[in-house]
Specification:
alpha/beta, three-stranded mixed sheet
Length: about 400
Amino acid sequence: MLSAGIVGLPNVGKSTLFNAVTRTHKAPAENYPFCTIEPNVGIVTIPDPRLNALAGISSSQKITPTAIEFVDIAGLVKGASTGEGLGNQFLNHIREVDAIVEVVRCFESGDVHHVSGAVDPIGDIEVINTELVLADLASLQKRKDRLQKEVRAGSKTAKVEESIVDRLVTHLNTGRRALTLELSPEERVIAGGFFLLTSKPTIFACNVAENDLAIVCEKRRSPERHDLNSAAEEPPLLESSRNSARYVELVEGYARKHLGTEAVVISAQIESELVDLSEAEAATYLRDLGVQESGVDALIHAVYHLLGLRTFLTTGEKETRAWTIHAGEKAPQAAGVIHTDFERGFIAAEVIHHDELVTLGSFAKAREAGKLRIEGKDYVVKDGDVITFRFNV
């Protein structure tokens, strides 16, 4: 199972967000640095309303969503690459995850201490970026030192690897992450063996205060309605909300420019309060706050796609289930996710997209309409495909 590590400076809301995402209270969330030392791990189901509609068609007795793993990692501070705070321990925990959710504080509060003394989201991002880059540079230097003997002996493989190391070092020395260096597919496979921290896909979670969430979300949906530089607009924005919206804009701009990724707005405090509520109670709570949907659901979906994952579906009277594959995988590989025998004895896949099936209302009507397709070994499975596999072993 692939995993995403929740990282950030101390007191930005990492553990609170972890509790919200995993719908637990297992991570301590206190107002002091390093309240998390050992990483907390939780399995998170992927919200997927398609399953309910599909289960209704098949009268399924059971619904099983797919899942990914989230890891709450201790807060990083300046100097972590040289052992400050929980430096080496923190960096090793990041090395073990497949993607990074970087929580950025975008709220002001005199009650919550900021490790740097002031709210500065871009400064916070740069602190983490610098420490990850420095750790990778140290790792690459050690690798290059080990390669020297093989290079002198004339090893072509070592020479190729050294060339990639040199390009990465040059790139990292400009402050950019390894993820943004252009490499050929073959070079990227080799670089993957370096296990660099800055090679991990990253998404930003902008953590805003409870009172600011509705206004910030509205500002993002309708930017033309809010001029954040105008003090005369109606209705007036609270100063904290104006600042939060500005902080979010800065993080979004940084994410696009430097990593080509996205930023998701959440209020970790609000989401943690939803943990003990039913789905209906949570929806009412959010509506009362003027918020349309849970930021955590959006974050989970964003991380799922950040990891390059897609979902196909199976359904029957016993169970309707979501299965995880990597984008671009073909029908036999998808069959193998269910059982290795399915892949080994793959004959064909009977496929219809979820939306088409729900619109038609039944498999019988789908067959009558000619919408059920028989696909072979070269078919690339799409997100939302409903599949029945034919195999012989």
